[in-house]
Amino acid sequence: MRNNIYTPILLVLFSVWFASCTDVLDKEPLGVLDANNYFKTAEDAIQGVNAAYQPLLMNNENNNFYWVFGTLASEEALAGGDGSRPGIIEIDIMKHTAATQEINDFWKLNYAGIVQANTVISKTPQVDADQALKDRVIGEALFLRSYYHFILTQVFGDVPLILEIQAPDEVNVFRTPKAEVLAQIASDCELAATLLPLSYAGNDLGRATKGAALALAAKAYLYLKDYNSVLNRIADIKALGIYALQADYRNNFYDSTQNNSESVWEIQHENLELGVGNFLNQWWLSKKVMDGYGFCEVSMEFVNAFEPNDPRLKFTVARHNEPYFGVTYKRWKHQLYSHTIR
Amino acid sequence: MFPAVSVAWNISNEPFFENLDLISSLKLRASWGQQGNQEIGNYPYSSLVETGILEYPFGGVISTGTEIVETGNENIKWETTTQTDFGIDMSLWEDRLSIIADYYIKRTDDILVRVPLPQSAGAFNPPYVNAGEVENKGLEFAVSYRQTTNDWHYEIGANIATIDNKVISLAGTEPLLGGFGLSDGPITRTEPGYPLGSFYLYKMEGIFQSQEEIDASAFQADDTRPGDVKFADLNGDNVINDDDRAHIGNPFPDFTLGLSLSVRYKNFDLSTLVQGVFGNDVYFLYGNFAYETQLRGFNSYAKILDRWTPTNTNTDIPKVSVDDRNNNRRISTRFLEDGSYVRVRNLTLGYTFNDMLKTDKIKDLRIYVSAQNLFTYTKYSGLDPEIQANTNDTQGYNVSSDLAVGIDWGTVPAPRTVLVGMNLKF
């Protein structure tokens, strides 16, 4: 049965494997888009900064709830809707917690923008492009980083001020006092203003401009109560000579009169299906109108805050039986409403 | 360099075993070895970007962009596992019965786990981090028996394994957090002395029955009312807050069990595979919907009809409320359940027609019925005790965290499938 029955067997196996000990094996990644190697050309820098604009959009893809904090938390409007966003009701009735989804989403979104901007700021100097383009891209990223910090500090007060790419062991940071955040914003925007162009044409319309950077610097100084600096920055903006109020207030809301002389800097929206559109039309449209979500039903207090015959009121609030941008809205009472709202 | 040494003694080959017919072979084994692990994808040291994402319209034209999708860790290094193993292999009765038993101690240094970043770091896919040292130890035991007679052939196998997972030390000073849930996450906390991804929860003591009981207990919220959940004041400071959470619950099972059976009688064949998992805890996060009401109109489990009311006081389901002012749905033992289960993974019955066929073109014909996940025995109240990792734990980024296993978001359960099939051999 067993052939080598008299042979005592003692098996000793000794195996040694050699693993990566020499530099020969440390290869640079090939075909993988590694952030350290990605930024090489002018186009790479532009693509990088394009992504830093994405958090501005007001739609479902990125959950930008900036509007909630100013509008619903105040008495300007009430969170209506069907309850599908319990968080905005929590904010409206001041029962929000650190776990409220909209608060988390807003925080996360803006920091995603800041981290993206920081990547652009740190990688763009090394790309192979002419200095004017590099300056513009870095100026845009500085402006966007400042803008995201600015709206974060408006909502949260002291917030982490993130100015560099962080290693995973450096990510647990404390909040920075609001005044320091604002001072950083003011100085970054002043730097950005020296890098950015006065305006853009064609397919670059909507990028950060010199005027936008000066205006955000002025706002930061305003919150710092440094009124002289506010006045100086506003004088700088005026000196650019390209801004003026519109004769007709409603021009600020028409598709055809976007980016007009009254607009220093404007968030661009285009196509809902492709994820770069604006959801607020439907979210804010009253639930009394068909297809309206009614997430932001204006209060009478807000309406009454307009002076009598203020021409802006009828372009700000749609009221029953009154024309609003060519559509006469009616309360929806179980009969189909024929207008498609755009 | 990863060395390994192993020693085995085939006792049954020794002279003194010559006349033992009962034991056909017996071997003692011991081994020690180190192994590296880098099964973590390519280039975890560098941040990854994705190109061509539709980002933003400039001048009415939608532009693409390049986004960071994962942050890298420039300091990443190999994970090293040192395993010591003692084992016995034995077979009896001319190899009809075989037994394999092992005891192992596995210490993993610089363990590579995906650790979620705070959202201020961008909240991308969590990077791999060499998190510290983890020890796994346990016993593995497998036994199988097979026999063949004229008409019968059968094989029975069973295995059982225990696992004891413990974090020995952490590379950083801070505990690692995981399982960012719907409500006030994180649900897990990883620190020395406890398993990886140990549940870190408030402890539910019961339901407040009266205002007097609320007044006599630790403060929870301004609006605590009879019918709300009473949480334990674990640190005794008379206030229920974040300091009253503790390591309660282990996502790792005490032991797992596998049973296999294969029987053939004449032309019939029957086989089954049964799997069991015992002693693991599952966090029933879906209970946020199942046992609570929402402003949003989700349906709840029928069990919510047994909620606390002044006339229905003997229940563990708090009163329903629209805005949950006592935060009854906070992460607590209320939603922690025993995740043990036994599942009939597979059951197959077949019949082979080989000698009845009148043609020699077909060599073999077998028809069979096979069922997957036929029965599951569990006390777990969720959809499926076999929890699938969920990317909600990383706030929507498309990988799950290693520190958030055993959290049930109500993902689609494993389906029960029944197959009727035919095998033809030509």
Structure, described:
The complex is a heterodimer of chains A (342) and B (426). Chain A has 11 helices and 5 strands, in the order E-H-H-H-E-H-H-H-H-H-H-H-E-H-E-E. By secondary structure, chain A is mainly alpha-helical. A two-stranded antiparallel ribbon of chain A has the order 2-3. In chain A, strand 4 (323-324) and strand 5 form a beta hairpin. The radius of gyration of chain A is 27 Å and the shape is globular. The model of chain A is unreliable at 1-32 and 334-342 (pLDDT under 50). Chain B is mainly β and 426 residues long. Chain B has one domain (4-41, 64-202, 245-292, 329-425). Chain B has helices at 211-216, 287-290, and strands spanning 2-10, 23-37, 48-58, 61-70, 79-92, 97-109, 112-114, 128-130, 132-148, 152-162, 164-170, 176-178, 188-190, 198-201, 204-207, 229-231, 246-247, 255-265, 268-278, 281-283, 336-338, 341-352, 364-372, 376-378, 417-425. In chain B, the strands form 6 sheets. In chain B, strands 1, 2, 5, 6, 9, 10, 11, 18, 19, 22, 23, 24 and 25 form a 13-stranded antiparallel beta sheet that branches. The longest helix of chain B has 6 residues, at 211-216. In chain B, 31% of the residues are buried. The model of chain B has no long low-confidence stretch (mean pLDDT 85). The chains are: A mainly alpha (342), B mainly beta (426). At the A-B interface, strand 1, helix 1, helix 2, helix 4 and helix 5 of A face strand 1, strand 3 and strand 4 of B.
